[in-house]
Automatic annotation (TrEMBL):
SUPFAM superfamilies the UniProt entry points to: Lipocalins (SSF50814)
Gene Ontology MF terms: pigment binding
Keywords, sorted A to Z: Disulfide bond, Signal
Protein name stated in the entry: Lipocalin/cytosolic fatty-acid binding domain-containing protein
Length: 212
C-alpha cells in the first residue's frame, strides 16, 4: 500500500496538553466494567517486524483524553537500528487542524511478544508509561489492541479496545471479521465507537524498516 506523507507538528504545546490529560485521566473518562481484568492471551507468535507501518484508528472504546485532544489518530510502528522499536502517535487537532505527535519507546515481552510496554520519549516524560496487548491481527487489514487496568480493591477495571487498520477505510467485511474475533475473546463490541476520519491529514510512515 502507499504510505501517506509526513506533516510534522508546528507546535509542541498540543502534545504537552495531551500528556497532561494522560497523566490526569480519571476512571470515568474510560469504559469501567465490574471485577478484575479478564485474562486474554495476546496473538500467538506475534511478529513485531510484520506489524511495522501506519495503523489507523477505525473504532475504539470511549477514551476522554483522545476525544478531547483530536481526531484522525494514526499509530506508526517503527524501527531504527540505533533506537529499536518505537511508535509515533499522530493526531489532528480538532480546532486548528494541526498534526501533533508523541513518540513512545517499545519493548516486547520475551515470552509473549504480543504484550507491549511503552514509555513516552518525545517529549521526554518517562513517568508516563503503560502496557497493552495485540490480541489479533492479519498485519494489514485489521488489528485488535487492548489495554486493561484493575481499579483499587479489584471491584472494577477499565478497558480500552482499539480496532486498527492499515487501510484508511477498511471494508465492512473486514470490520465485521475483527469484531467477531473480539467477541470470541469475550470483549463487548457494542462499546466500540466509530472514529471521525473525514479530516484525515496526510501523515508519514516509511516502509524501510532500517530508516525511520
Amino acid at each position: 500500500m502507499a504510505w501517506p506523507r509526513l506533516c510534522l507538528p508546528a507546535l509542541l504545546l498540543p502534545s504537552l496538553l495531551l500528556l497532561l490529560l494522560l497523566q490526569g485521566r480519571r476512571a470515568d473518562g474510560q469504559v469501567v466494567l465490574p471485577g478484575r481484568c479478564p485474562s486474554i492471551p495476546s496473538k500467538k507468535d506475534f511478529d513485531p517486524d510484520k506489524f511495522l507501518g501506519a495503523w489507523n484508528e477505525i473504532e475504539r472504546y470511549f477514551v476522554s483524553y483522545e476525544h478531547l485532544a483530536g481526531i484522525c489518530w494514526v499509530e506508526n510502528y517503527l524501527f531504527d537500528a540505533g533506537r529499536g522499536y518505537y511508535t509515533r502517535l499522530d493526531w489532528t487537532d480538532r480546532l486548528l487542524g494541526h498534526v501533533n505527535s508523541i513518540e513512545n519507546a517499545l519493548t516486547f515481552d520475551e515470552k509473549e511478544p504480543g504484550r507491549l510496554s511503552y514509555v513516552v520519549e518525545r517529549p521526554n516524560i518517562p513517568f508516563l508509561s503503560g502496557q497493552y496487548q495485540i490480541l489479533e491481527t492479519d498485519y494489514i487489514h485489521y488489528a485488535l489492541a487492548w489495554q486493561c487496568k484493575d481499579l483499587p480493591l479489584g471491584v472494577a477495571h477499565t478497558e480500552i479496545l482499539w480496532l486498527l487498520s492499515k487501510m484508511q477505510i477498511p471494508t465492512a467485511v473486514t470490520i465485521q471479521q475483527a469484531k467477531e474475533v473480539a467477541t470470541s475473546l469475550g470483549l463487548d463490541t457494542s462499546l466500540l465507537i466509530h472514529q471521525d476520519r473525514t479530516r484525515q491529514t496526510t501523515l508519514a510512515s516509511i516502509t524501510n524498516h532500517g530508516n525511520y
